[in-house]
Amino acid sequence: MIDRHTPRKRWIDLAVLLIYCVVAVGMTWPLVAEIDVRLPGDTKDTLLHYWNCWWAKQALKSGQSPFYTRYLYHPVGLSLVSQNFAWGNIVAWLLLEPLVGGFAAYNLSVLASLALCGYAAFLLARELAGDWRAALIAGLLYQCWPFRLSQLDHPNLISTQWIPVFLLFLIHTIRLGKWWNGVLTGVFFALVGYTRWQLLVPAFILGSIYAACTLPGQRASWRRWGPALLIAAVVAAAILAPPALMLLTQQEVSSSDLLREGEEAEMQTDLLAYLTPGRSHTILNPLTRPAYDRYYAERSEPRRFAAYVGMCPLILAVVGAFKARRSGIPWLAMALAMILLALGPVLRINGQTYPNVPMPYRLADRLYVGRVLRIPGRFNMFLASPIAVLSAYGAASLLTAIERRGQWPAVAASGVLGGIILFEYITVPVPMMRPKTSEFLHEMSSEPEAYAVLNLPIDLAASKEYMFQQTVHHHPILQGNVSRLPPGTFDYLDSHPWLKSLPQSGKMPPQSTDVSRQLRTLAQDDVRYVVLHKKSVRLEHWQRYFSIDPSFEDKRIAVYTTSPRAGSDFALAEELAPGIGLITATASSGCLPPGQPLSVDVGWGTTAPPGEDLNVRLALVTREGATAAETIFPLCEGWPTGEWPANAVARGWYRVDTAELPEGDYDVVLALVEPAGAVRGQSTIVGQTVMRKESCDLPLSPEAIPINALFGDGLRLLGYQLSRDGDQLTLTLHWRADQLIAQDYKVFVHVIDPTNDLRVAQDDSKPLRWTYPTPLWNAGEVVVDAIPLSLKDAPPGTYLPIVGVYVSDTKDRAPVIDGSGQLLPDAQIILPEKIEVGDLDS
Predict the structure, then answer these.
(1) Which of 197, 220, 714, 728 is most buried as measured by Cβ atoms within 10 A of its Cβ?
(2) Please, what is the angle between helix 311-324 and helix 329-342, to 10°?
(3) Which residue has the higher pLDDT, 371 or 493?
(4) What is the pLDDT of residues 686-718, one digit of tens each?
(5) What burial letters (b/e) apply to 614-643, b meaning 16+ CB within 10 Å?
(6) Smallest Cα–Cα separation from 711: which of 774, 755, 776?
(7) Half-sphere exposure (CA, 13 Å, Cβ side) for 327?
(8) Are 700 and 706 in contact (CB under 8 A)?
(9) Contact partners, residue 12, CB within 8 Å, separation at least 6
(10) Which of 726, 760, 753, 723 is nearest to 842 (CA)?
């Protein structure tokens, strides 16, 4: 029942709001202490929402729609119709940013949302329970709800302050039937949608449950509340119409992007989580963290969200449901509905799933509108509303009983209850991040020219960081990560010839690469810089690939221009013919067994157009000056040097066969030759190598046994180590990349009985337990790979380890040339060490 005699003095409201502000600061500590240098949350979603604020400012300044941007996916741009803009926080940021700066404005908007959440729940609970002290407790519960505090990196999810106010005016509309209550109900429902459009679904469910539970008892007065509810619907529809029409229009193009298939099956709530404090609880985390690890073992830590209700709130809610009787039925029904939806399509208890148990969410799974939150666990956010109201009913009943002994004992009791709730929910220090920027990004912001930036690697997850960096340098980028990507987003990236041939992740460029010509295609689309993010790429590969000097480099990034110029971005180490020469040249090995080929990796550059077609001759020359072996190649396949302009940069990989060479010392010589074969300009020695049958001096640890076998094109097994611990065997292989390796190789290790080829143990994997594919290896790089093998099922006997390599996609084995230059049968090498298996305890 609505209590019309509850005091509404403004000083009480101001004091309560101040309390919620203080609590917001305390429960997010130490955010306010580092308000201008850190952002809340432990995922990069915080960076995405910060970008939303920055983009809204750019759109406002330029007078354009915020629902389309050319700052992402240059040069085409990107629709942001389905982007999750937290407009309340964005408006607060726009007002505060000129006064306190971007970080402080963002953090203040988060703190304000938390305080307003508490105050909104306070208003609803005070109206229903009739006791401002009980309402204060309800507001604390709603404000510090554990699921909310675990989502500080999602301001569009934690800002649910409009839902209690919507429910409050919905109650007024039904009970009083005033038209202005209907207007305000529609306004606040629309504000829920403008916070995050998916929040309309749980808000509608909560409102519908309340209406379904109360309207049948007021059928006689339908002429009063019916028009008011109609007004609410019309007002809400009118306010929400513009974004709704845009969203529906985009949905006609593609509806699948709104849902991510299979996500609901993984992100449901474990039933025991409702009784377990959050994994980051300040005091109890040594106990609760292992519990959440068990509940959600398949998820990363930031996605092990707290669903804790709290013992004190649970007891108060049970008491409230009993004491409120009919008034508590709608709120009890709401709580049950939110829990059933949050449990998801598959019941999970203590980390175990029970797929045969029918779950109500499966009905929502069939109803498109029921799935738009994507993650069932997010319904736990809206469980806070009914639990807060029921707790207010329970607290009011308890405080009324205590008040018979005096007003101050009741006030003290309310303080104790609030303190218990805060203790149950506290998770300080909250996770925060300190986004890093580079000096060069700030320098870019001062450049007036309009140009774009390509960040590498091209990765959706990393794009959130690229978007934050864009708020510093203010230039378009070729990537982006938004809530839902519309069709055609990747058309430019997929169709661009340079990006198709560029080494990304595990891909390598072709054996000869027209670097500057490819870069020029980006420059023609106004892309000025390629920014390499060192923590995510193998920088050595890119340095060798580009051949040019970075325009800027620090611990985090290396920046390369798309318009390299001789003298500023690269210099010729040696000019072989007028205007053309070597930037870099690296021979694959200083020591080779006869029969193993030698390769050279060359970076070419020009200071002037060569004006003629030239080839490159790679030769091995004896110390007496006689040419022992030679091969002639185009400098760059598909790009004759006669077409090279000044400032051209290209890469080439060349190999010479040594099968017929005798032992001895050789110079590795490069020269440019005309099509007829005549040398143009001068030749140069780019390295020396030794041919010998005996073991070469290899970059091998003293503990390893040398092998010096070559697998395929450039993958050399230098040696190995074998260690044993009971029935566990570890074979450590020492590899070297003699050149850049285009093939994605797998290594197989078999332990066999040589008498019958019986295999007793095996391992097939990419190097370093699948984490370092061979296309990522740098030429000359040594990789030490420890491979575990189990002998527990091996019968007593004597065994030998065998090593081979095959192409991951085709399963074709790479040929093997041993240290004496012999081609081995079966494309595998038997390591010369016996493994004895017998009575291990004897």
Answers:
(1) 714
(2) 140
(3) 493
(4) 988 888 766 566 677 888 998 889 998 789 999
(5) bbbbbbbbeeeeeebbeeebbbbeebbbee
(6) 774
(7) 21
(8) yes
(9) 132
(10) 726
Place of tokens 């909250």: 430
Distance CA 693, CA 593 (A): 5
Q: 682, 617, 612, 668: which is closest to 644 by C-alpha?
A: 612
Question: Residue 488 in 3-state DSSP?
Answer: coil
- The helix (H) or strand (E) run that includes residue 62 is helix 45-62
Asked if residues 721 and 732 have their Cβ atoms less than 8 Å apart, the reply is yes
Per-residue pLDDT tens digits for 516-529 = 999 999 999 999 99
pLDDT at 365: 58
Q: Is 702 helix (H, G, I), strand (E, B) or coil?
A: coil
User: How confident is the model at residue 503, as a pLDDT?
Assistant: 53
Reading the block at residue 367, the tokens are 């109803």
For 685-713, give one letter per residue: b (16+ CB within 10 A) or e.
Answer: ebbebebeeeebebebeeebebbbbbbbb
User: Which residue is associated with the tokens 């982006």?
Assistant: 480
pLDDT in tens, 624-682: 899 999 999 999 988 999 999 999 999 888 888 887 788 889 999 999 999 988 999 99
**Using CA of residue 30, residue 33, residue 38, residue 40, what is the dihedral sign?**
positive
- The 3 state secondary structure assigned to 201-230 is HHHHHHHHHHHHHHHHHHHHHHHHHHHHHH
248-266 average pLDDT score: 54
Dihedral sign for Cα 766, 767, 771, 776, please. negative
Provide the residue count of the chain: 842
Separation of alpha carbons 409 and 414, rounded Å:
9
